[in-house]
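Bench log, entry 3. Co-assembly request; chain sequences pasted below exactly as received.
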Amino acid sequence: MSLSNEKISDNLELVRRSIPFPQRFEYEGDTINKTFKDYKTAIIDTVNVNLKLLDELPPLKTLNIEDVKKRLRKIVEDMLKQDPVFEKSVEIGRYADDIWKYIESYFREIFEYHDSIRKHLDSEIFDVCRMFFNSDLPMLFLTTIEDAILIEKDYLDAYDKLIHKERLKLLLSRNNRKKFKQLCDAHNRWIKPFTERMDKLEQTRTRLFWYTDFNNSATVDEIFKVKSIRSNALDMEIIQGFIDDLRKQVKEMETLIAPKMQFSFFMSYEKNIGARSIRKIMELANVPEG
Amino acid sequence: MSFGQFEGFFLDTCILLPHPLESMMKACSDFLKEAASQCIISSSIKTEALDLIERSHIVIVLFIHDPLKSYLESKGIKELGNRDGKIIADFFSEQKAQLRKHHYTKSNIQNEILGAIENYVASQLHSLKKGKKLPIGIFLPALAAELAVVKHKMEAPFKGGIRCEEIKPNDSVLSAVVISAIMGNEQRARCPSSCLSLAVPI
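Structure output for the full assembly:
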């Protein structure tokens, strides 16, 4: 029988070998010291759990409680030090603690990364405007690339809102492997169609920009430099093809993202002169002629 | 409220677009905060609004791209600061004078469109830090870049968050409307495209 095989000594070992999850350890210093400190703290905690159990016993009739405590402390300490199962439980406790930290760091990194991406995308909008202002390219070239960049920003906003919710669920389920896995699977399921389309969209946008820039560069040193862009250096049918592709992909992305978007309301245009100008022209365009 | 098979509040464009009046804006905002989930926009409203926003945005950008940029280059102006408002004012005066000469109409629409563009350019110029000069190769694209973000924000309520439904009118209702429009109105009631195209004297 496996139970009897495992029982090497005849001593009674009926003590609690673990402390409840989640375990929170606060350590400083290098990993070896940290691991050792984890282990020592876990022993102290487990000994205390056992001593607390002793306190909860009805008064002993024959033995002095302080002597028992002293003896029990020694037995439990020695036992735990030789027990690989206890060591394992400390290790698992460390993982549980690390998962918490990893999840926290992971999400913090994601949000910071997305903020950097947003700034990068803003700079790309400016770059494409700059290219357009140095060119005789059609307006559709500019608006299509702008829309493709701005839909990426919408995607990041929607993604951040959703993973804010997922983050909380993951943290609460960090000790439940099955639930944790289900949450990760659900996340991967909803994210897949977005990332696939977003990759495609970004590739088409890059191709359009590169094709325009490279064909207006006389030497390789000129690529990505601010310069005059002439449409006669380009095959406008190819440009139109890229624009059509990109517009189609933006529309697809808009449809996909719409249910995930939260209603956002533009505040008074008194605070935004650009909105006021667009709004004014919209109103004027609706005025009856005559 | 029930409209055939749809149930909810049908929104018009003006509810979802920014307003000049704070009080009006607050009223719309409060209503939408409360009832956005029960609101509906018809696909025709959505298409019209997005189309108008897009075309109004294009009018401004094309105007900055061509007449304004060409004017500044022809005058040898390489950079602009917040004290150069007169340069912009002179340019727009010239444009308005040309408009009066070439496109005389009873309405003042083109003039007002020019005024809206002038407002945008002048305000952005005045918002530059005192003493800071920007090359026009940076200032003009920055105007367009900022406007692209504004346009996108204005489009947002029409693109997500509010349920959109396509409503096909009953054929008999449609015929009645078309006949009454033909009989009752010899002139075109609306002509947005002609208004907008005249605003850009390229």
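Residues 134 and 228 of chain A are 5 Å apart (CA to CA). Chain A has two domains: 14-82, 103-261.
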